[in-house]
Amino acid sequence: MRLTCPYCGSRGNDEFVYLGSADPVRPSHHDAPAEQWTAYVYERTNPAGAHRELWHHSFGCRSWLIVTRDTRTHEVLKTEPARDAAHTSSEVAVP
Amino acid sequence: MQYSLAALLRNALSGNTHWSPAWRDPQPKPSYDTIIIGGGGHGLATAYFLAKEHGITDVAVLEKAYIGSGNVGRNTTIIRSNYLLPGNTPFYEWSLKLWEGLEQDINFNAMVSQRGVLNLFHSDGQRDAFARRGNAMRLNGVDAELLGPNEVRRLHPLLDLDNPRFPVKGGLLQRRGGTVRHDAVAWGYARAADRRGVDIIQNCEVTGLRIESGRIIGVETTRGTIHAKRIGLAVAGNSSRLAAMAGMRLPIESHVLQAFVSEGVKPLIDQVVTFGAAHFYISQSDKGGLVFGGDIDGYNSYAQRGSLPIVEDVMSCALALFPSLGRLRYLRQWGGIMDMSMDGSPIIDRTPIEGLYLNAGWCYGGFKATPASGWCFAHTIATGQPHAFNAAYRLDRFASGHVIDEGGKGAVPNLH
Description:
The complex is a heterodimer of chains A (about 100) and B (about 425). Chain A is of the alpha+beta class and about 100 residues long. Chain A is built from two helices and six strands.
């Protein structure tokens, strides 16, 4: 499997470190109930199909990326810098 | 057909043309008392124990492909019970005891081989951790022996004990651990369940769960609607997909795990040996091939195939332990889809849907658990209550904080 880093081009996946789904949103530290934290820390949609996920180009430019990938075929559908996604949406958690 | 020496002789003399199929191929009935979704090792064992221990024989096992096509045929066949934590030790020890009686129980040769499982350690700190694990096992009545480097050298002369980076300081040996022929486990449980009246329905994929006012009433399948009062999910790898049909989100990610077999060679490694410095385990099959594996690939996948960095990683681990394997060629590699749960431990429990039961989250330790998983899941379904052996494997433990973190790694599915 290869990923195309928006900054570095096509690279083998051993240059990247995987974090997991990009969808969970960190609840508020002040008033979120425990159920929201349980959902954030533990529960995952885990789809068979398109999956938005966070990858870190650790052995390259060290950028966080959001990759949309088909989990049934490993086909990469879209790659974008996590920074851009964070700027256009208030619901994306960037570690 | 009862297998016996007389049957073997009779069929040998008649050219082996009169063996009957090991189980029936029935049409699905419109309704059953209980349906088990998933015809893998755990699902078949569950159906077998429902019939044997609880007298519930109006049972169907629904399998989307054929028996033996999933994870029961995609593992490295290792059995052991060398667990540390209180929620795990009694369960896995019960599983090992069931393995010890399996072949007599189901009248099927599964080639259960208690050749021993040796976990190597490579530092003083790791020795302390393994001694603690061994002591916990012995306190629970499980066998464990702490070996020094010379005892390990006598058992495994090919090991590179004096490796400068990861010297072998010793190992924790469980002599009752070993290997079992995994296909025979699937076939043996399928045959034994069938003989007790269970319908095993292959090529029958579940496409939906029928739920009315919070209660399960049946399933939609590619072979029509089938009603049932009780339904058990035993579909590790696809648990999240099935649970989503009931509106549930599980603390699980699906990941691909690869395994490898080398060309056959003469007896070389007569136990299961695991590397303590990286994730790697190796044993030798009765055909002579070395069977080995390592880490999951590390990203969500339903593809049943992995990528090359893990191949390189596993091979380098093999050579770090056994440099003499460098000229050996590997024959085959395959991938299976694992339910990676968020604490590395399984779930055998009821669900918020009445009549719907869940058996999931086996990470890559599901094969050794097959008999006890089936035994405990059957108990949970038949009585509506978990058995003491699976009482800790609750679905709500993530919300309540009672996680069973055997690896000590936290809520990170891709590290277990």
